[in-house]
Protein: Spindle assembly abnormal protein 6 N-terminal domain-containing protein
Amino acid sequence: MEDSPAAFDYPALEELDPSLVDGFKLVYEREVPFELRSAVGLDPPSEVGALEAVKVKILVQEGPQLKTIRVELSSESNLFFLYVHELSEPSFKEVQESQRLMVDFNDYPTVLMRMLNQCIREPHTVLAIFIMQPTGEARLDFIQNMEYKFVELLSCRFLAAGEELVRQHATYRYNVVKARLQLMQARLADINAAVKVKNPSLLLQLQRTPPRLPGVPPQSPNRSSTKPFYP
Structure:
């Protein structure tokens, strides 16, 4: 059985990820539960926000030593949600001094990964609260619930990505989904061909049986799918 051409196109497509331009390397990618809050004005929002799974990417740009750290936030439910947090060593020192961080620049990605993983493993103990401003600025606060009080562990400033970068990411994600669909369709065609050779009657049975969606109970054959007619 020959491999589908789509199987060869997919790895090449991944190399076109706009996150990887300028020599950036992906070191972390997971969906993390965030509490999303939107500020109306300059005052911080007082109401509890919606909980949503946000995809977090941590990327590093290296030369002889670590040069830049970038964190990208995106959402599977919104193609146009894209925020970026980027630090070089000089800008990290400002954050280090203002927040009295006890880690150096090289350890910063590891600290972020550890906190994000804690948000996944212990969502009621370590919270990730993302506050968005109308200006495009945003802040990610890692908060630890100590039962009797909340302690801020770390705060990261983000900026909404520009229109061109959002377009590049949306195009890339669309093409990835399209490539996956083509790959699955090619795989299904291969399976159909194999079943047709070995067991044609089984293939006819499979084609006549409507697909079942997860979580949806099968419909009774004695039950009509149309509404009853009342004269």
